[in-house]
Amino acid sequence: HVQLVESGGDSVQAGGSLRLSCTTSGVIYSSYCIGWFRQAPGKEREGVATHDVDGTITYVDSVRGRFTVSEDNEQNTVYLQMDSLQAEDTAAYYCAAARLPLCIAGVPDRDFDYWGQGTQVTVS
Question: What does the alpha-carbon distance between residue 109 and residue 44 come to, in Å, rounded to a whole number?
């Protein structure tokens, strides 16, 4: 049994911060690459960051230095802390999981097998 549930999306002003949560089953947390993606209206899903089974984290250049991935092993949860938010960050944010030989932010969304329902982030 595998599942992912995102939470934490909200509306914030430019320059503000949010922390998103991706709570997973134990199977996913211990064995799967976890990716954060976002999708703005009219745009394709874009990879944001990844968290590998060994704790290795990667980011795309557009969020590096502003977004930070962390984890809570006890709660099987991966967090995405988003600081200095910009209007361009407005999107539905998703977490996803897959067993991948390479777990980096550039991996396309089609390679991920399990998805949460998404949480909306709006920056004004």
Answer: 10
* CA distance readout (Å), 75 to 2, 37, 57, 65, 68: 15, 21, 18, 26, 18
Residue 51 has which token pair?
Answer: 């968290």
Alpha-carbon Rg for the chain in angstroms = 13
Which conformational region is residue 16 in: left (phi greater than 0), alpha (psi within -120 to 50 degrees), or beta?
beta
Residue 55 tokens, joined: 């704790």
The SS3 of residue 106 is: coil
Beta strands in 1-108 (DSSP E): 4-7, 11-12, 18-24, 33-39, 46-51, 57-59, 67-72, 77-82, 91-98
- The token duo for 39 is 């999708």
pLDDT in tens, 35-86: 999 999 999 999 999 999 999 999 999 999 999 999 998 999 999 999 999 9
